[in-house]
Amino acid sequence: MIYAIASGKGGTGKTTVASSLVSLWGDPVTAVDLDVEEPNLHLFLKPEISRIDPAYIEIPEADESKCTLCRECSTLCQFKAITVMGDTLLIFPEMCHGCGGCLAICPEGALSPGRRQLGEICHGRAGGTRFVMGRLRVGEAMSPPLMRQVKALFADIAAADNGSDIIVDAPPGVSCPAVSAVIDADCVVLVTEPTPFGLHDFKLAWEAFSPFGKPMGAVINRAGIGDDSVKRFCADKGIPVWAEIPFDRAVAEAYSRGEVVAEAVAPLRGTFRQLRNNMREAVREKVAACAR
């Protein structure tokens, strides 16, 4: 099963939850950091990276001797990655989304597939846990193509590790990268904080992800500050609150030292175990409901 740890905004404690769940999951599990623009799960799990694979995106390369400047490619490309100016065909690789449409539509066969490096995919192990991380090249603007390449490994991960569960540290927010991270998950955990700002982005996340119909629950981090507006919203929408992590100095200190909170703060182990159990139970109920 794939469990996505998401949040409506950054800084809510998403990676704190993901790393703690990985540390006490029990069953075979793979930790995947899909926050490819700013991955930081490795800072807590401290995996030993054994392999780094470059990740590429397909871009068009032009044979000017064949190009008749018909403009069919530039008319098709909504991202303006390829255009004709005067009698010159121009390609802007950084703007190309790699759809391959221009290659398919070129009537003269003047375009062929090339590539440029988008980022890299890191493989390793954190103790007995398999670890995979996508890392976007500095300056790149498009994370979904790299995320898709990381997600393409999920089937192999499950097969190689005999049905290993996958815990995904998703990008924050509700834009394309966040949606791309949760859309294939079997369960979504939304991490938030009990403040007006937290509630605002929590609502956005719930509105963005709930149409997928996946089991979804909330984790309230820094519980004890702010107000109970998040709880009231959850009660109103039928969102279960699976865990509350108290606003505690010991948690902040463990985080600042780059430690896994569930390992560093013993009283919270029960909280994260209950969160794990709630996530598994939600998936079991969903599977049973689909089977009926």
From TrEMBL:
The record's PROSITE patterns line, in alphabetical order, gives: 4FE4S_FER_1, 4FE4S_FER_2
- Which Gene3D superfamilies does the UniProt entry name for this protein? 3.30.70.20, P-loop containing nucleotide triphosphate hydrolases (3.40.50.300)
Pfam families assigned: CbiA, Fer4
Q: Which residues form the 4Fe-4S ferredoxin-type domain?
A: 58-84, 87-116
GO terms (molecular function) for this protein are:
iron-sulfur cluster binding; metal ion binding
Question: Which keywords does UniProt give here?
Answer: Iron, Iron-sulfur, Metal-binding
The answer to keyword Nucleotide-binding applying to this record is no
Would you tell me the protein name for this molecule?
4Fe-4S dicluster domain-containing protein
Q: Which organism is it from?
A: Pseudodesulfovibrio alkaliphilus
